[in-house]
Amino acid sequence: MAAALYIIWSGRNKKKTRKKAVQLYFGQLAANVAWSGIFFGLQSISLAFIEIVFLLILITYCLVAFSRINRAAGYLILPYFLWVCFATVLNLSLWLIN
After folding, report:
1. Do the domain assignments include residue 22?
2. Is the dihedral of CA 68, 70, 75, 77 positive or negative?
């Protein structure tokens, strides 16, 4: 993730496009921290599920924005996206079981 951000941050593309992609990156990063706080801190599985779906949406936008600027940066975000997809299924499973 950090390597992808570096590629975007140091790129020679339009500043406005780059700024939007970086904002999406930090937005999804903040949502990731929020999910941890909700799931582990508040121990609210249902609210955490809603948050992780929001996180997944932000990661998708970030992945697309990074890919449009630099394909390699987009590929570097892909494992994170897949991991959060798996975590979303786990979160939903815990919610349904409890």
Report:
1. yes
2. negative
